[in-house]
Amino acid sequence: MDKLQIEGGSRLAGEVRVSGAKNAALPILCASLLTPEPLALTNVPKLNDVRTMRALLSQMGVAQHDGDGFITLDAARIDWPLAPYELVKTMRASILALGPLLARCGEARVSLPGGCAIGLRPVDQHVKGLQAMGAEIDMAHGYINARAARLRGTTYVFDVVTVTGTENLMMAATLADGVTTLENAAREPEIIDLAQCLVRMGARISGAGSDRIVIEGVARLHAAEHAIMPDRIETGTFLAAAAATHGDVVVTNADASSLTAVIDKLREAGAHIDTNATSITVRGNGALRAASVRTAPFPAFPTDMQAQFMALATLAEGASVITETIFENRMMHVQELRRLGADIEVEGNAAVVRGVARLTGANVMATDLRASACLVIAGLVADGETTIDRIYHLDRGYECIEDKLSALGARIRRVS
Ligand code: UD1
Fold first, then answer.
1. Which end of the chain is more exposed for a tag (fewer CB within 10 A), N or C?
2. β-bridge partners, 43
3. Which atom of ligand 1 lies at the shortest distance from residue 298's CA?
4. Reported confidence tier of residue 234, pLDDT bands at 50, 70, 90
């Protein structure tokens, strides 16, 4: 199993290019199921989650072609409208196949995702929404079995704000009979990216990016080309790493408008940040100050940046209170940060982080994707060597992170 070894103490400097967004690529790959014509995508990140999703689609019968910088998915035929447990258990986002399969094939069989390290993560909203659109759904042997000759438009009010739930219903509604209105929808930028791709495929969607999305169903979608948006969480991770190491870094292919809450908090913590249309410059030359964050759905501070921000807070002057409101068990990095010398107390869903003068390198274990990124940042600022085990989590969501950080001057290497 691969590990990362980091020799802390280097100041990050230079330019780094952000890859395409994992959380936009995954639903957009599933959107290929909605049409018998090819969908050509650029800026698709090379990540394990993307490979898993492509394997899932390929098993269903979706032909795929890799060109120079793009991939084409061709779902002319769907042989197996099935997402098996073996793939869903490694990547919960496989649930995103449910809506498109049902809308296109009239049936779908998708494994129920279990709990995962960061929480229970039920999919009741995906199921209830599709039922409201006329699907007959039963659960048996750990699978969601869904049927609908043709879905019908409806108004569905989400009980909780869910990103993949919104995406699943939005995709299903593109081929439904009549108009679907999704109320209390998630507003994440990845939903806008998916909607833009669907519109290029001939879908009629308005309101994506607001909490009310209206989709007028059409009989058929067609071929399209789409460039995946830049990854805002990867962007935020580089910003936090640069600020933590008192670095001077230009993050390119970045969209600052999708990261306002993160940029505001990094500024509050003492980083100097300048933004323009496609890049963000961060200078962390002064002392870091404590800043408190509370995660919440977009546009508030993203849960996917909570762990990385906590790494920064471990060295900031004063006490930061970091409150996690989205997932019930997303503080597992705290134990590992403590092994590096951080002073953190957890009370319920809040962590009080008191800045210390220095962290010291140690062996630590990555527990989930963003916790891994948090430990990388902590390793970059800790004295001496930090070895991070179980970095397969990191490979799910960060493309060549050690190469990108090395190019910025970090002393980091992968060992088997
Ligand atoms: C997506 C992101 C993930 C991010 C999360 C929150 C993808 C592929 N993943 O995950 O990186 O951390 O949004 O921004 O885009 N919930 C229910 N019932 C449901 C669905 C969700 O109760 O049917 C609850 C969840 O348990 C959680 C909250 O709603 O507490 C938000 O979850 P959700 O937005 O659905 O997360 P994902 O879409 O799985």
1. C
2. none
3. 14
4. very high
Beta bridge partners of 405: none
Answer for the pair 4, 414: CB distance below 8 angstroms, yes or no. yes
- Residue-level pLDDT at 237: 98
Q: What is the dihedral of CA 365, 287, 246, 332, to 10 degrees?
A: 20
Ligand 1 pocket test, pick from 26, 28, 162, 301 with the greatest ligand atom count within 8 Å of Cβ, gives: 162
Contact yes or no for 191/209 (Cβ under 8 A): yes
Whether 307 contacts 335, CB under 8 Å: no
What value does the mean pLDDT take over residues 109-119?
A: 80
Please provide the average confidence, as pLDDT, over all residues in the chain. Answer: 96
Q: Whose CA is nearest to atom 34 of ligand 1?
A: 162
pTM: 0.97
Give me ligand 1 centre to Cα 326, in Å: 8
| Residue 281: Cβ within 10 Å count | 18
Mean pLDDT value across residues 156-181: 98
325 CB-contact burial (10 Å; exposed 0-12 / middle 13-18 / buried 19+): middle
Residue 352: which H helix or E strand, with range? strand 350-354
Say what the pLDDT of residue 74 is.
98
Residue showing tokens 């490694």: 90
270-280 tens-digit pLDDT: 999 999 999 99
3-class secondary-structure state, position 32 = helix
Residue 166 has pLDDT above 90, yes or no: yes
Cβ partners under 8 Å of residue 4, min gap 6: 376, 379, 387, 388, 391, 394, 402, 412, 413, 414, 415
d(CA 248, ligand 1 centre) in Å: 33
